[in-house]
Design brief:
mainly alpha; elongated
Length: 63
């Protein structure tokens, strides 16, 4: 996001981000959000196996 130099400073001393995005930046953001949402949906759709703890202490065949 771009920061306008003419914008008054915020409470932290940094300029407030109030500039509008260009058309290209808006399209890039929309594409990014669509890809991100697709990836999240794909991850959530993966099969989940039930987690089971391993026995402790580990059994050793060297006894």
């Amino acid at each position: 996001m771009k920061v306008c130099p003419s914008v008054p400073e915020g409470l932290t001393g940094t300029p407030l981000p109030t500039c509008r995005l260009t058309v290209n930046e808006q399209l890039t953001r929309v594409d990014f959000l669509a890809r991100f949402n697709d990836r999240i949906a794909e991850i959530k759709a993966r099969p989940k196996t039930e987690w089971a703890p391993k026995p402790w202490p580990p059994k050793s065949n060297e006894v």
